[in-house]
Design brief:
Mean pLDDT: 91
Largest sheet: 2 strands, parallel
Radius of gyration: 13 Å
Number of domains: 1
Strand order of the largest sheet: 1-2
Number of strands: 2
Helix content: 40-55%
Strand content: 15-25%
Oligomer: single chain
Length: about 60
């Protein structure tokens, strides 16, 4: 499973610098992949690439 979170740039900056918020590395090694984005196109491109990677490994 892949999760793409879309944030406004200022909000993402605040999240990434808030010590009370889990760092993105917290999700490493989990059965799902998480990324944070500020642009919808980048998020959709990443999701498509992850889907293609997963699909080609199933064949």
């Amino acid at each position: 499973m892949h999760l793409a979170y879309l944030f406004m740039p200022l909000h993402l900056h605040e999240i990434e610098h808030d010590t009370n918020v889990l760092q993105i590395t917290y999700f490493n090694g989990r059965p799902y992949h998480v990324e944070r984005f500020t642009e919808e196109y980048a998020a959709m491109t990443w999701l498509q690439a992850m889907w293609e990677q997963e699909y080609t490994h199933r064949e």
